[in-house]
Amino acid sequence: MNNTKCLTDGRRQDSERRRAKILAALDQLAARGDDISVSAVSRAAGVHRSLIYRHPDLHAAVTTRAAEPQISTATGPSASKQSLLTDIANLTDRIRRQDAHIRHLEQRLAEALGEQVWQQAGLGGPPDHDALQKRVSQLEQHITELRQQLADREDDLDAARAANRELIASLNTTKDKQ
Fold it and tell me: CA 41 to CA 84: how far, in whole Å?
């Protein structure tokens, strides 16, 4: 029985010693202003990460300290880890938008240069192609209107000729009767 008691006491003392090393390493990292994480604390204490994860009170102590704003001894402005992560996310989004804008501008430049080369090579139509197409459409519409007017006038002329023939025919028949 005495042997079991010795082993139990030794295990308890080892557990307390490793717990004290973890808490001391946590205090040391916080005092230096280093990044606090389970990995950083376990490395500084010389223990395995699973020890911290197996003890909820140690894990809570590490996560609580990691969430606290760090007091920097350095002069100048300081930023929290969360604000830096937010800045990184914002900058990443800004870079993505700028990349899309650059791709759009490159596409427009490529189209403009392609059109210019096409024109200079003599492959393209005249520079006012759209204006000429519009004018052609207007003239075609005008031709259609003039053809309709001509057809209407020809119908009127045919009707007038028919009326003249009838009048002349009636005049000729009245002269023959006299």
Answer: 21
Distance of CA 175 to the CA centre of its chain: 95
pTM over 0.85: no
- Three-state secondary structure string covering the chain: CHHHHHHHHHHHHHHHHHHHHHHHHHHHHHHHCCCCCHHHHHHHHCCCHHHHHHCHHHHHHHHHHHHCCCCCCCCCCCCCHHHHHHHHHHHHHHHHHHHHHHHHHHHHHHHHHHHHHHHHCCCCCCCCHHHHHHHHHHHHHHHHHHHHHHHHHHHHHHHHHHHHHHHHHHHHHHHHHC
The more confident residue out of 124 and 37 is 37
φ, ψ of residue 156 in degrees (nearest 5): -65, -45
What type of residue sits at position 53? Answer: Y
Quote the tokens at residue 39.
């990995």
